[in-house]
Amino acid sequence: MASSSSAPTALPPRRRPHPKLDQAKRSWYFFRRNTLALIGLAILVIIAGVAAYAATQKIPWTAIPSECVTDYGPGNPSSGYPGPYNNSGCGNFQLACTYSNTPPPNAADYCSGEWYKQPYPYEPALVPPTWTLKPFSAGPLPMGGMTPFQGQGLEGSFIYNLYNAMLRGSDWSLMFSVGIVGIGALIGLMVGAVAGYYGGILDDVLMRLVDIFLSVPFILFVIVIVLVVSADVHSLFGLTQAYTTLLLLVLSFAAVWWPFYGRLVRGQVLVVREQKYVEAARASGASKGRILFKHIVPNSVYPILIQFSLDVGTVPLLLGSLAYLGFGKFLFPSANFPEWGNLASIGVTPMTDIVTSCTTGVLACDLPWWQLFFPGLALFMFSLSVNMLSDGLRDAYDPRLRR
Amino acid sequence: MRMTTYIVRRCLLLVPVLLGVITIVFVLFHALPIQDQLTAHFGNPPKTRPCAYMPSCPCKDETPTNALGSGNTCHCIGSNVTVTKETLCTDPIWTHDTTLLGLNQPVWTQWANYTYRALTFHWGRIENESTLGSTISLFKNMKVTTAIRIFLPYTLELAALSLTIILAIALPLGNLAAANRNRPIDQVSRVISFSGFALPAFLLGSLAVIGFVLLLSPALGTTIHPPWCPAGETLSNQFLNSWPQTGSSALTPNCYGVGVQEAARNNPYPSWLILGYQSTPTGFPTIDAAYHGDWWLALDTVLQIMLPALVIAFGTIATVLRFVRNSMLEVMNLDFVRTARAKGVPERTVIKRHAGRNSLNVTVTVLGLTFAGFLGGFPVIESVFHLWGVGYMLAIAIVPPLSYAMILGSTVLFTYLVVAANLIVDILYAYLDPRVRLG
């Protein structure tokens, strides 16, 4: 049988791609057939492109004219300033102007001069949008200014043109979403994998912890954590106070977000750890850590990825809701921080009053509808595209749902 | 495992969860700076700040008029004392407050006191100077349990109505979408559910308020009113804007029932909640109206929460719809469905009898968990529509100055409700699907 040298040589084995690649190709095939998912992917790519563009630009903002500012000096009750005090010796001021026809601010440094600079010509607050679209080169599209607001933000006290604010907000929104859900999912992955794999007492304790975290009302948890932490921590990793506030926002949301993932991952790990290949790995003497992180976690990660992409779309909506409830000034460094959710809540809040006064009053009045419409549209498109994408992913990766 | 054993076991599991929740809230409170803790207990006075709240303790030399209570306003104008947070004062009022609240006791004692208060429903009273206490005189110094008794029925009615809407839309649409997979109806349901997911509640709610309440409603006169009432006299005109009312006009009965002032005097509920009735046996506006036999009013109370319920339903329908569709798809791939088809059972019957019933347990789970989430209230929706439910209460309890009593009450209540709802869902699940092992 093994004698003859004249026997025809065996055919070379058919070249098959790496199994992972093969699976990815098949998934891409199913994904490609889903039109809605493709549309979602396209919108998301556009948004990410805008965010990347915005991150490279130095987005102009407008400083508050000094003649509009009444300075109360260091924040103590004797100065007559009604509060709240920031006790920094600077920044306890009130605005007097309505920003209609005020002249451009002179460059007098207010307070330290560091955060009161004048990088951009002043624009009046409420300019209706004009529809002369000048793509990319010719500067911002006039969309009306923001509602003037006091606050010490990343660049000091600022007013953004709405177009610029939305540009600026695109990368903030994306970074918050991915950061919060990413850190939360990572913690949840660790906890869930350990609980599901080791079982026993550890499992019980960790899952009770998850139960406890899920039983505290979400809003209360997040806000009180932010209040507690921001009362004590003013600077992390050498960052300025504004960036520290943003980092704390991400961290506190992640601290509340992980239990969802912990529960999800545990359920998945419980299924995967009974599979034959895990048994094989155990039989061949792999260590527990290797089994957990080489075999179990990679194979239970798809549902988490899908949940991840779903959750990313809800973060700006959540931030907007919290800002609408009046927590914007605690979450962000400034009440008019350019984040899409915050912008939408700023645009929506005065709207009912304006409409009421318009319907009851005799004066003709212009609704600043663009302040509501554009941030709302951005929020909607972002969340919609993320949802369509994750739905397509689920259909492509879940063999029970595709046929 | 028998059902009773299972239920007892689940109830025992409630104990660590409840203790954990109380501990978390306690730890968060304890981590606040001490003047914030004092503010959480006494509220933040808008104009005069009692010495107790001053971190700088400027009144050390002055003699306060009162030991503690209403009169402890010492005027500290002109003091430029800057004291850091760590510098606790030896001021008698400060010490008195701290001692009174037990803030100087060891942490374990404080924790034990807090837990005892939480578990025995000694949730305290709404602070006079808190947001709720200072804006509405009725709630001043009211027990939190009483306030919750007023607020919770509103939330429950809202939750029940929106759950009904969700059921009525999501179940048929989900089944239809699964039966016609990837056909236009599936895509339409998909787009509807995505839109509900992607539109934040505050935006949709505000748009609904602007569109329906402010613009459309005056034109259409959407409020239901009895035929003997003049058309202009809507409920909101009569009760919302006119309370509290003084003078003789308050005592004359209006066309809905009794005078506003009289109603407010005779029971603890605010008149815009009881809508002019002298007794509220249940606290649920609709049920009370029906109890008194006023069907117009019952209809009107439902109509008033219809818009917020629609907004809630639109936002939540996405999840339920996806679950219904996917569980239906999974069941339709199973063998017994194929067998039924092969037998020649008509497609309608297959979907209705074979697949539909078997996908029901997932649906029940999702609906139960959704309802459990609803029980915590809808902070955003209730704020947008000015509905006084527990969610609104929670939302104003968190706005600094934090309200110690209201936060304690609403967290413990929320935990009880959520755990109870989860238990009921699990029992239903085991009842609907005999394959589920209780364990």
Report on the structure:
Chain A has helices spanning 19-32, 35-56, 162-198, 200-215, 218-232, 241-272, 276-283, 288-299, 302-312, 315-331, 340-348, 351-360, 369-397, and strands spanning 62-63, 69-71, 93-95, 158-159. By secondary structure, chain A is an all-alpha fold. In chain A, the strands form two sheets. A two-stranded antiparallel ribbon of chain A has the order 1-4. Chain B has 439 residues and is mainly alpha-helical. Chain B is built from 20 helices and no strands. Chains A and B meet through helix 4, helix 5, helix 10, helix 11 and helix 12 of A and helix 1, helix 7, helix 8, helix 14 and helix 18 of B.
| Greatest chain-chain contact | A-B, 56 and 64 residues
Number of strands of chain A: 4
Unreliable spans of chain B: 45-92, 230-253, 256-278
**Biggest beta sheet attributes of chain A:** 2 strands, antiparallel
Order of helices and strands of chain B: HHHHHHHHHHHHHHHHHHHH
Show the helix and strand layout:
The complex is a heterodimer of chains A (403) and B (439).
Chain A: H1 19-32, H2 35-56, E1 62-63, E2 69-71, E3 93-95, E4 158-159, H3 162-198, H4 200-215, H5 218-232, H6 241-272, H7 276-283, H8 288-299, H9 302-312, H10 315-331, H11 340-348, H12 351-360, H13 369-397
Antiparallel strand pairs in A: 1-4, 2-3
Helix pairs in contact in A: 1-13, 2-3, 2-13, 3-4, 3-6, 3-9, 4-6, 5-6, 5-10, 7-8, 9-13, 10-11, 11-13
Chain B: H1 3-31, H2 34-42, H3 92-101, H4 107-119, H5 131-135, H6 144-179, H7 184-198, H8 201-220, H9 235-240, H10 260-266, H11 271-274, H12 285-291, H13 295-304, H14 306-332, H15 335-343, H16 347-358, H17 360-375, H18 379-385, H19 390-398, H20 404-432
Helix pairs in contact in B: 1-4, 1-20, 6-7, 6-14, 6-17, 7-14, 8-14, 8-18, 12-13, 14-17, 15-16, 17-20, 18-19, 19-20
